[in-house]
Design a protein that fits this description.
This protein has 108 residues and is mostly helical. The chain has one domain. It contains 4 helices and no strands. It has helices at 6-39, 45-67, 74-83, 94-107.
């Protein structure tokens, strides 16, 4: 495995938080559309409640587990986020970009 400087590791950790927030935002936006459907009486309160529970027990939990998993290398998750267009190349520390691009292209 590549040995990165402490500074780069710290930057990657911050980027993980950014990627997590961006991915969660995407899914919350989808959930917010259900609130709009409810406000516009396209669905009832029970359907909205069901969607909230599905969100909480599903994607929200899945993302929390993925971004907070012990033993998962930060570079793996950064590469996943990069491959998913959650992070831009310019945001990734220079020291790590080559390996992130490699992992993004080969793993995802």
């Amino acid at each position: 495995m590549v040995e990165l400087s402490k500074k780069t590791k710290k930057e990657l950790r911050k980027l993980l938080t950014t990627a997590y927030a961006r991915e969660l935002d995407q899914h919350i936006l989808e959930l917010s559309m259900k609130f709009e459907d409810w406000k516009n009486r396209k669905i009832d309160c029970w359907d909205l409640n069901d969607n909230i529970h599905k969100f909480h027990d599903g994607i929200s939990r899945k993302l929390f587990d993925a971004y907070n998993a012990r033993g998962v290398d930060d570079l793996y998750m950064i590469s996943r986020a990069f491959a998913s267009n959650l992070l831009l190349k310019e945001e990734i520390p220079t020291e790590a970009i080559e390996i992130v691009e490699h992992f993004a292209n080969t793993l995802f």
